[in-house]
Amino acid sequence: MTDLRPHAEDIHELFEEHLDLGVDEIEERLDTLVNEYKVPLSEARRSVISHYREQAGLERDEFDAGDSELANAADINAPDEWVTLKAKVVELWEPRSDSIEQVGLLGDSTGTIKFTKWAKSDLQPLEEGKSYRFENVVTDEYQGRYSVKLNRTTKIEPLEDDIDVGRATVELDGALVDIQQGSGLIKRCPEENCTRVLQNSRCAEHGEVEGVFDLRIKGVLDNGLETQDVLFNREMTEEVADIDIETAKQMAKDALDTTVVADEIADRVVGRYYHIEGPRVGRYVLVEQVERLGAPTDVEELLIEARSI
């Protein structure tokens, strides 16, 4: 039988400043989960920590859950775990809240995962393209998608060696039910190594520039059970919508409005069924292969097909 006392003492140490707890009480709770309900020890620890964290009214990043194990991005499949990552900052995004200092993608040889660094964590700024060791980050989950959060207990160490980022390919079947804002004919920054989409002829990094036209679809694929954001680059957009960039530019010129291109693309692709393949990067699957499918005869058939994926 596993000796649960050391684990109870570890948990007691986490909360001794916040709750009037005894080690015996914690050990009894662990014993019930592990020996009576046959819950794995690691899951039992998470459950007990979560219970006392809620009781104390603490956020996950307000205490250190102890030593964290080195993990791969692709292996993160549960929330509330404390892990260590060696990863490259693949991409930084614009935070949507003042409480978030940085947000973006981390990547290692197994794939990528979203990260959030809280403003109150008082951690060093991360640089896009650089590799780091992140010790003590907490995993999170939202609608089946996992991420990691950097908090005040996280230790960040720059790495000299560059980490190669791998890409795991996924395959999906479903209906393209929507194309989002930012689809159609767009302009990108022409500066070397910068592909940012321009807003009102301005690049977020290089200011006002003469943009280069591009085509893309930011869409939503629905398989009957869940939705997935998908991103078609110019080549894939031309293939799936049967429209080339010169035609798109002429349409926009004739109408004096680039939005007509997105409207035309939507008419050609929304409501149709596709098989797509590509790597998952953040919230998107980047489409590298696409095949048009015949529409199911009814909703029940679509659900049957979706459940078989």
Rg: 24 Å
CATH topology of the largest domain: OB fold (Dihydrolipoamide Acetyltransferase, E2P)
CATH class of the largest domain: Mainly Beta
Please state the average pLDDT score.
Answer: 85
What share of the residues lie within helices? 25-40%
Series of secondary-structure elements, N-terminal to C-terminal: HHHEEEEEEEEEEEEEHHHEEEH
According to CATH, the homologous superfamily of the largest domain is Nucleic acid-binding proteins
So, CATH architecture of the largest domain?
A: Beta Barrel
Strand ordering within the main sheet = 2-3-4-6-5
Helix-strand makeup class: alpha+beta
Q: What is the makeup of the main sheet?
A: 5 strands, mixed, barrel
Number of domain units:
3
Low-confidence stretches: none
